[in-house]
Amino acid sequence: MTDSFDGIIGQTAAISALRNAVPAPLPAYLFVGPSGCGARTTATRFAAELLAAATEDPERHRRLTLAEEHPDFVLFERNGPSLSVDQAKEIVRVAMTSPYESNKKVIFVEDVHLAFASAPMILKVLEEPPPSTHFVLTAEEIPVEIATIASRCTRVDFESISSKELTDQLVASGLQQERAAVIASAANGSIDRAMLLASDETSFDRWNAWTELHSVLDGSGNSAAASADKLLTMIDAATTPLQLRHERERDDLEERAERFGERGLGRRNLEDRHKRELRRLRTDELLMGMTAVGTAISAGITNGSIDASSGSRSLASVTSAAGDLRRNGNERLLLQRLFVNLKI
After folding, report:
1. What is the largest CA-CA distance in the chain?
2. Which CATH homologous superfamily contains domain 12-157?
């Protein structure tokens, strides 16, 4: 059977459960797993199958959902360090509206483990959802603040995707083993990220720039600032292909709207999606950098070129910086602070 789930690796049990759920879905699902495990991709594909089921043109519903352009697929991402109360109010409002084109509506809420102040409002709509509304939530963990939300959902667990699984997938796509292994490490367990890096000829240059920080960092503010600026400039350049694709999508949108008048393909929705994609790309690039730096430090500890005690403190600093990046910290200041303290 060919469906939207094809191509997702490392999540056999989760995909099997979701395929079985499509004909008679429950009101709410909670995908729980580490960052990069594929929960976001799977959530979008699950939504595509739900919206396509029992419709006259299932392929159109799949296509629009996978492009995040379906009027009955509504995605909520946090705009800051947590899901806000205003976002929760909008979730409740949208949940109460009727579907436009499908026979159901799917609301996808990312990072619900960060729904602190907004959790009570989200819980209320989960307790009494309209029959045509289905929720898909993702979380990296289940803190006490969302324990009641979790109890109202059907939980689907996701595992970390191993480097070997990613490497095998990349080799199968035509990459050489050595390059595939490096990309698998850089992708932090994300198959989508891995495939993007595999198609980017400059990704090795960026990886090497991070791993070679030891040759330029000397503990001074000047070297830290210069290194941060250099790496952020490389990241800016890495977004160019995505921005070009966004331009083509805007042109295609205008053409389709003029020719067919398809509903749900508004420019505002497209611009919102483009902003999300650019933000995710920058975060992924910075997290790749953290992985590269961590790999270099670990290698230095192993071969004796880095003192084990100072190396361990540096690894802790890298881990802390990666967490700050996920909370939308100031990129330049965060990198400068990290680089001043690194001992590599």
Report:
1. 65
2. P-loop containing nucleotide triphosphate hydrolases (3.40.50.300)
